[in-house]
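Teaching assistant's notes for section 4

Start the section by putting this record on the projector. Ask students to predict, before seeing the second block, whether Secreted protein will look compact or extended. Collect guesses on the board.
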Amino acid sequence: MIIRFASAVSALAVAAALSAPALAQGQASAFETAAPVMLTEKAAASLAAAATTPLVDAESNEALSGVSIAASSEATPVVLTAAGAAPGLAAGNGEVVVNSAAITAAAAAAAQGGDNGGRSESFTVTLNQDSFFGFYPAFNGLIPVSENVDFSFYGIIWTTDAFGTGLGSDLWTEFGVGAAIYSGNFVIKPQIGLTNGALLSGGARDPNGVPAGTGGNFADGIVPSLTVNYSDDTFEAEYYGGYYAALRNRNGDAALDFLHTWINAGYKFSDNVSAGAHYELLSNTRNTFPGGSTARVYQWVGPYIQFKTDNGFFARFTAGADVESGNDGDFYKLTAGFTF
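Reveal the predicted structure now:
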């Protein structure tokens, strides 16, 4: 069987899109190989999506209705077949003409993102406010690097004065990198970040090593974290655990470490509405202030409701009680964001 391309396409580009080894040995205009022709799933999907008439008869230039692209599983190559599998695959001289635009699209998908699991780069921006941390915009970017892994980068722009000097300067700023690992319905995201400011390190020191009362530090603290998300057609869940450890002035007299963790799970009533329960803990696990001691800062328990739109916007409101002993009162937090 002869596969002929409607216009010249480089053999290298075609070989990147099509998995049959024999194709790499052919010329730019025609490739001879035994039927059926094997394509990778991603190349075949790109081929089917990119071409309006991907397969046509060489003589009549009419679409071949008996030729189709089919895939059985991720582990099985896609096979280009003809109904009946008769020797005369196409009417006339047995040639099948493939729209070159489809092949170049498939080749581009293979070369630029053919092994990224079909994901594209994304960037999510959120506006957040709660009863402890105040207002803090955040962002997270994802860049696919393999079939089931993305490179991840994130930042949190903390605006609460009390985290710096209380005068609006030396505001806490967090930035980090990591990976997003895709496994079935799970996304597992280990990350590590740096905080900059004065909250964990106590800020700048005078010549005697005493906190100067103003001036933040680059690399104020280090934040290893793990986020695990689960989502299917009916349920959603998230776990987060992060440890905020002082990095500068760690053994000084104003260093703090914190454990911050939460878990929530909910039911999807539709593609646009979900609701569930949320638990969150913030604990001061290390305190070098003279006379200072460690303590749980808060424990929040309550329900959430979330709304999403088909074009990437979402909003989640969570509220409930602070159940930590001595912390009478309620908590509330609101997140609004957009992924593009």
